Amino acid sequence: MRPELTPELEAWRAEVREFLDAELPEGHAFNPEFDDAPEQWAIAVEFSKKFAAKGWIGLTWPKVYGGKELPPVANQILLEELYAADAPLINSVGIFLAAGTILVGGTEEQKKSLLPDIANMRTLWAEGLTEPGAGSDLGALRTKAVREGDDWVITGEKAFTSWGPMSDVLYVAARTSPGAELRDAVSIFVVDLKSPGVTLHPMRNYGGGVQSSTFLDHVRVPGSALIGEEGKGWQYIMRAFYASGTVEPIYAMQEARLRDLVKHCRNIPGKLDDPHVRADLAELAGIVQTQRLLAYEIIGDNAHGRQTAWGGGVQQVAAKEYEPLFAQIYDRVLGPSSQLRSGKYSPLNGKPEAWYRQSFANHAGGTSQLKRMVLATRGLGLPR
């Protein structure tokens, strides 16, 4: 089932589809977490600039900062169509995490200077949250920022920096009050990746993409690089993830893949007569629908001012744990031939094998284990 939408929202969906039909180049499929070949990146940059020219980045932002002030459900529809089409939109760190932080905590000057550059794809952001030995635990953060006159000097190491070599700036969480409680110890900075002392060491990951270890060796940044207030970084990060009121619609991408799988099965005589295959397809459909309903529950809560203690954690746990399960069942339906990348016996050009490897990259935004801890402590009031 699908949530009922107004005629205006259905017309908006049609407008987005029309744009995608016209602007998506052949061979456009692109996963920004893993695809980094120069020719793919060039296609992604060109498409993303056309997308930005439509004014569709920051759809829910205030107009004064380059947004359109549309409701969260309109943004969710936009994201659903992008995911379903495998559209090569880049700069998700800038569009969601950085912009969300700036909107909830940035100064008026920062909102007017940084947000338009994100909305127009002039500045690409990489993420500097995760650290070796800390993982998803923000409380174990070791990168520190020390004030020297009007400047800050940042020292530390970040791990799993996606798009580092292609980005302009780094979103950095650093401790500014080492002895303080977590809620008062972390601050957020924007760091130019060309600054002296910034070093990137790219490394290949299991999914086929490149992420970097990022070293910050006494990197000096101006006082204006501090986003918002000192010591408010933890609150900014927690609020930034939900600032747009929307949810990453992995389910829309999975639904499109499920349609391709059903089409493939119909072309094989007797395939859909197999009860095991039918059961697997039904389970895949259930995975898609469960995530869609959880997503729209969050959107409805945001639209009506209902704030939950767990902040959408149930949906995030489902999305992170369903993704590898979806890929596993998908490959089971296809059989061993899913691993073939070319030839007439290769279903879907070998993409399912890559989807399986990439499905385990669930650390972005916090692992499912961390989300479960949030549900337990904030949602149920259990001790850590």
Describe the structure.
By secondary structure, the chain is α+β, with helices and mostly antiparallel strands. The chain has twelve helices and seven strands. The chain has helices at residues 7-23, 38-53, 72-84, 92-105, 108-119, 182-185, 233-240, 250-266, 275-303, 313-334, 351-358, 368-379; strands at residues 125-128, 144-148, 151-162, 169-175, 186-192, 198-204, 210-222. A four-stranded antiparallel β-sheet has the order 2-3-7-6, with no helix packed on it. The chain is globular and about 75 Å long. The protein starts with 6 loop residues before the first helix and ends in a 5-residue tail after the last helix. The mean pLDDT is 88.
Secondary structure elements and pairings:
Layout: H1 7-23, H2 38-53, H3 72-84, H4 92-105, H5 108-119, E1 125-128, E2 144-148, E3 151-162, E4 169-175, H6 182-185, E5 186-192, E6 198-204, E7 210-222, H7 233-240, H8 250-266, H9 275-303, H10 313-334, H11 351-358, H12 368-379
Parallel strand pairs: 1-4
Antiparallel strand pairs: 2-3, 3-7, 4-5, 6-7
Helix pairs in contact: 1-3, 3-8, 4-5, 4-7, 8-9, 8-10, 9-10, 10-11, 10-12
Sheet/helix structural class: alpha+beta
What are the low-pLDDT stretches, counting only 5+ consecutive residues below 50? none
> Counting H and I runs of at least 4 residues, what is the number of helices?
12
The rough form would be described as: globular
Level of helix content? 40-55%
* CA-atom Rg in angstroms: 21 Å
Number of E strands: 7
Which strand order do you get reading across the main beta sheet?
Answer: 2-3-7-6
Task: Give the N-to-C terminal Cα separation.
Answer: 38 Å
Average pLDDT, rounded to a whole number, is: 88
Task: Characterize the biggest β-sheet.
Answer: 4 strands, antiparallel
Percentage of β-strand residues: 5-15%
H/E element sequence: HHHHHEEEEHEEEHHHHHH
GO molecular function, one term: acyl-CoA dehydrogenase activity
Protein name: Acyl-CoA dehydrogenase family protein
InterPro entries: Acyl-CoA_DH_CS, Acyl-CoA_Oxase/DH_mid-dom, Acyl-CoA_Oxase/DH_mid-dom_sf, AcylCoA_DH/ox_N, AcylCoA_DH/ox_N_sf, AcylCoA_DH/oxidase_NM_dom_sf, Mycobact_Acyl-CoA_DH
Keywords: Oxidoreductase
